[in-house]
Design a protein that fits this description.
78% helix; two-stranded antiparallel ribbon; single chain; rod-shaped; 172 residues
């Protein structure tokens, strides 16, 4: 009996060991392949994010260059205007009676008060000294206005470029 039982036990043990080995190998290989697939998906997603970020950076760089060029053009225009201001107001007029007067004139204190209040957003009320003249002349006021307009245009261009950047960044 032992002679017939031992070979069948040996055969059963070998079969059982083979089954456990094959099952364990299958689990290991399945886990290994699943892990590789997961890693490949993560790498693909990371690459897609990197490509998208690079595209946004390239668009941003192009917009910065465009903004810098516009700002340089605005600055050049401002300098040209500011160079013309003294020429415009420094010219003298010769009237028919041969008297020479300058075109530049001073402005009343009320105008300066209103100009400053409008620039700062402060409240303004009439004053008794509004009719008095000041040392401020029209050339100074024009220079201030051109400088303020240049700052306004620069901020306006920044906002336009930021809006364009936002549109391109959110575009799919």
């Amino acid at each position: 009996m032992w002679k017939t039982l031992l070979p069948s036990l040996d055969s059963l043990a070998i079969r059982l060991l083979a089954f456990v080995f094959i099952f364990a190998s299958g689990l290991f290989m399945g886990h290994h392949l699943t892990a590789k697939l997961y890693d490949a998906k993560e790498q693909k997603a990371a690459l897609a994010v990197e490509v998208k970020r690079d595209a946004i950076e390239r668009k941003g760089d192009a917009l910065v260059v465009k903004y810098v060029n516009k700002t340089k053009k605005l600055t050049d225009n401002l300098q040209a205007v500011q160079q013309q201001i003294p020429e415009v107001f420094a010219k003298e007029e010769t009237k028919a009676d041969e008297t020479t007067t300058t075109r530049n004139c001073t402005v009343p204190r009320g105008f300066v008060r209103l100009f400053n209040d409008s620039a700062t957003g402060g409240a303004s009320a009439p004053d008794d000294t509004d009719a008095d003249t000041t040392d401020v002349d029209l050339a100074t006021i024009l220079e201030t206005l051109t400088a303020n307009n240049a700052r306004f245009n620069e901020v306006r261009e920044q906002l336009i470029e930021l809006q364009e950047f936002e549109r391109q960044a959110t575009k799919k």
